[in-house]
Amino acid sequence: MFCQFLDLVSIPDGTAITIAEAVKEVIIRKEIPQDRIFGLGTDGAAVMTGRRNGTAKLLTDSWPALVSVHCAAHRLALACKDAADGVPYMKIFRKHLQDLHLYFRNSANRTSALKAAASVLGVEDLKVTEVKDTRWLSQEKAISNLQRNLPAVLATLAEEAELKKDPVARGLYTYCATYRFVAAVHLQSDILPYLAQLSKLFQKEDINFMAIKNHVPVTIETLRIIKAAGERQPEGSFLAQVEEKVANLNISAEEDRVRRGTALPTDTLWARFQTQVMEPYIDGLIEHLELRFQQLGILGAFSSLGPQGPQADESRAISDLQLLAKQFPPISEMALLQEWQSYKVLITTVILKVSDSH
Q1: Is residue 261 left, alpha or beta, with left meaning phi > 0 and alpha meaning psi from -120 to 50?
Q2: Model's pTM, two decimal places?
Q3: How far is CA 276 from CA 184, 186, 257, 282, in A?
Q4: What are the DSSP calls for 314-344, one per residue?
Q5: Is the terminal CB of the chain with fewer CB neighbours within 10 Å at N or C?
Q6: Phi then psi dihedrals of residue 136, to 5 deg
Q7: Helix/strand/coil percent split, the chain, to 5
């Protein structure tokens, strides 16, 4: 795209020019009316969406009414990745998920051993799933599989480490056979389904801005509820099962032997997990979701102009239209409200009647 811009404006080779400057040059050369520049669609690369020097920011400096939009599903994935990267343990946690996948994928014998362990322990015969860098929310499937198969995975790693003296298996077992790892798996098992559901919603063909406006705050509030519950997680949640799972796996003292050499009660281990991993991770998710979806108000306001808009709450529709008029100064608020009244009558008395007749 950038090369096409350079061709359009005939920029000499070797000349330093930003994408924003190229866009402005094209607009001038093509005599595009500048009072009609309202929207910009981009990907989520920093050069396009950076808060200080991103293309959207630089163009907004020239056209304040400009609304920049990039893929909602991509924004969600970036928010999740940024949140994990902000908590040291969660960043390493994701790497070890991938290491587990590679350990079993690269050996037919190890895969067979995992299946055998799953059969003996009576758990589901599922492979350790890959976590893809290009699709961050693939971690949801990986976590779901691992949570169900954790006993078989740990049993197989222990066997490979003890009987075959496999140093890789020993390293993975030492990391995974800990209270903190089990708690992190269950934390992700509670959180990721909500984020995955949001991602799937964003990828629907008939998605609209109103859905984004409504569902992102719901997801954020759900995260706040999980954090606020602390050690009193609701019955049926995965976090509520951590103590039982740790006891069943018989690894309650493993973390202490490996890292501290002294025994700690599980309530102390939970308190450390809560303050060092769970709370900062959830805080990061909320922060980055709010950061990545700052324009929910203006985007959601467009829903009042859709076919269902005139049938919605009158006060909400008027508030949306006032927001749009404020965002786009060339539009007269009074003229917009008057035209919307006509549009409302047209939709509710003509178009819908025709539709009902068919």
Answers
A1: left
A2: 0.74
A3: 11, 15, 20, 11
A4: HHHHHHHHHHHHHHSTTS-HHHHHHHHHHHH
A5: C
A6: -60, -35
A7: 70, 5, 25
